[in-house]
Amino acid sequence: MLRKLLLGIVFSLAAPLALLAQERHYVSYGGTAGFQATVWAMKDLGTFEKYGLNGDVVLVGGSARQIQGVLGGSTDFAQVDITAVVAANLKGADLVVVGGTLNRIPFSMVTQPDIREPGQLKGKKIGVVNFGGANEYAVLAALNEWGIPSSSATIMPSGGAATRLTAMAAKVLDATVLSPPETIKAEKLGLRILLHLSELKTSFPMNVMIVRMMKAHADAVYQLKHDKQKAIAVLKKRLMQKETDVIQATYDYYAPKFEFPPRVNREGAAATAKFVLDRVAGGKSSADVGKLLDESLLDELDKEGFFKTLAR
């Protein structure tokens, strides 16, 4: 079980570096949006090696498959949104979240040019990746904050970001939620950014860390936030974008939003857990955020002065 594995991980982080280096550790990420940079940077900025880890990053499409990878042992560590963790635990998994780097919704509501205010979303088709995940949560959170009943719009599964952007360009969808670099492309197509959902009052732990490697991860986050040249290099490599303005805008959007130290907002975790429970269990179950989050490793690193050392 992963709770037992967590004890082994604390032991492993304290183990001789030579022993750690003998094992290959895999960290999964779910897509190619800019908020995955905190995982890419562990490899590209060398923080795996800095802390004696023989690590690599691997693309595993979709949070559900990432969870399966951790449970099955094919990956050691995953960056997923917290809805996936709550849903997995409802089905009997024993996952804990040990940290997080993004506590705001990283999407923007993108609409057709004629939609100029939230109220005009009534009666419109809003595309999301699928039901029950971060996309749907973002749409529902936005509609709720705008005082628009979710039943007044048609929320529909419409595929990945690239597919939804194509559907928007073809006017098959009236609105969707996208993040950089797709939002920059959307504006170039003449679509409207109605609102950056990171500006909503609600907090949403998007990049949560399951199991391992918090030192390497925290170091990568710090470098991304404070060394623009390194961050730009990571984004350029991983997003495979040739347009300098797209890379620059992606960096400017995400860098201020990454959390350092990488802690999860508990209020946001509770709100997100309630969303999943309402969707999956009909509100008949409850989630104990105290059991869902285990930031004891972060607490220890804080006491040791690790985060202050990085900031020197």
Verbal overview:
The chain is α/β, with parallel strands linked by helices and 312 residues long. It folds into two domains: 2-104 and 203-310, Periplasmic binding protein-like II (D-Maltodextrin-Binding Protein, domain 2, 3-Layer(aba) Sandwich), CATH 3.40.190.10; 108-199, D-Maltodextrin-Binding Protein, domain 2. Helix content is 47%, strand content 14%. The protein has helices at residues 2-14, 17-22, 37-44, 47-50, 63-72, 82-90, 134-145, 161-169, 182-188, 214-226, 228-239, 244-254, 266-280, 289-292, 296-304, 306-310, and strands spanning 24-29, 54-59, 77-80, 99-102, 108-111, 125-128, 154-157, 175-178, 192-196, 207-210. The longest helix is centred in the last third of the chain and has 15 residues, at 266-280.
Annotate the secondary structure layout.
Elements: H1 2-14, H2 17-22, E1 24-29, H3 37-44, H4 47-50, E2 54-59, H5 63-72, E3 77-80, H6 82-90, E4 99-102, E5 108-111, E6 125-128, H7 134-145, E7 154-157, H8 161-169, E8 175-178, H9 182-188, E9 192-196, E10 207-210, H10 214-226, H11 228-239, H12 244-254, H13 266-280, H14 289-292, H15 296-304, H16 306-310
Parallel strand pairs: 1-2, 1-3, 6-7, 6-8
Antiparallel strand pairs: 3-10, 4-10, 5-8, 5-9
Helix pairs in contact: 3-10, 3-11, 6-13, 11-12
